[in-house]
Amino acid sequence: MRIGVIGGGAWGTALAQVAAHGGREVLLWAREPEVVDSVTADRRNHLFLPGIDLAPTIRATGVLADLAEVDALLVVAPAQHVGAVLAETPVGRRPLVLCAKGIEAGSRRLVGEVARAVHRHAPIAVLSGPTFAHEVARGLPTAVTLACEDEGLRAALAERIAAPHFRPYGSSDVTGAEIGGAVKNVLAIGCGVVEGAGLGQNARAALIARGFAEMTRFGLARGARAETLAGLSGLGDLVLTCSSTSSRNFSLGVGLGRGEPAASLLADRRTVAEGAFTAPVLAQAAREAGVDMPVTDAVCRLLDGAGATEVIGALLARPLRDEGV
Questions:
Q1: What is the model's pTM?
Q2: Can 101 be counted among the known catalytic residues?
Q3: Residue 311's pLDDT is what?
Q4: Which of 31, 29, 13, 122 is nearest to 72 (CA)?
Q5: Is 184:295 a contact under the CB 8 Å cutoff?
Q6: Structure confidence at residue 140 as a pLDDT band (50, 70, 90)
Q7: Which of 171, 170, 172 has its CA nearest to residue 162?
Q8: Cα separation of 236 and 308, whole Å?
Q9: Catalytic position from the list 94, 101, 109, 184
């Protein structure tokens, strides 16, 4: 199975490195000409994944039409751009493995729903889990969820992308895998705020736990399975991204917690903190579904310019309730 990767950022490049394990050929599409040039000339992605020597079997291109030669596509473009990129990509009936995490602004569609609207005959899979790109590219141990409703395709994809350091666990719950990845980005901003404001480890642990309760409520309302949300693509990814400044969303929250304006923090970023786009969309979708998500609402207020002390105080002042409610 020949693999193509759509997106030459850090995560796309790391996945290309995984897919090239054992000398297998991989075609990596990048929008940035400097990425194509550096991968071709130096076997490195100097812009997004510096310091990592890439496999010699990774070939880079800036032409989406070149992807017509592969058998399956890993879609790693930012969630807000997946629809536009896929509209220009020759897909047909080839599998799309969606590796972006988020909800499309405006339409409030999950990435899988966006992909199906553009290429209705393409089988859909979702790859998600606790993954920092630089660790995956370095060959450090990583486990992910690979969700696909077609059991045969799921097994074939898992076999193709598995490596000694990269272990995919199968699932048929595509919706659950997507929701976990989208919601955890928002919650990671909140945990970053706790860190930036110096509120302590107790507060961060509490926010992770209550945030996971929100993820579970929303996921179940959308048809996800509880075990998926408690797995690698839900709780596993949540724990990772709520604990390290290697997470773009967590580091955005750290800046907000220190009192820096959201607009300036987002303007200074070369890479995308998807949680900033997902938060208001998720909050609106939750309201429409009748799902209570106070942590998500608090992150929205922070992104709109409210101070961390004010927002955290409002969360703590909510009426007392039983934990399972």
A1: 0.95
A2: no
A3: 93
A4: 122
A5: no
A6: very high
A7: 170
A8: 26
A9: 184
